[in-house]
Amino acid sequence: MKNITIKGATIPALGLGTFQLENEVAREITAAALSAGYRHIDTAQAYKNEEGVGSAIKNAGIDRNEIFLTTKVFRENLAKKDFLPSVEQSLRDLKTDYVDLLLIHWPNRNVPVAEYMDQLMEAQRKGYTRFIGVSNHTTALLNEVLATRADIITNQVEYHPLINQTKLHTYLREKGISLTAYSPIAQGKVLGNPVLKAIGEKYGKSEVQVSLRWLVQQEAVLAIPRTSKAERLQDNLNIFDFELSAEDVSRIDQLKKDHLRVVNPAFAPDWD
Question: Which of the four pLDDT bands, split at 50, 70 and 90, describes residue 106?
Answer without folding.
Answer: very high
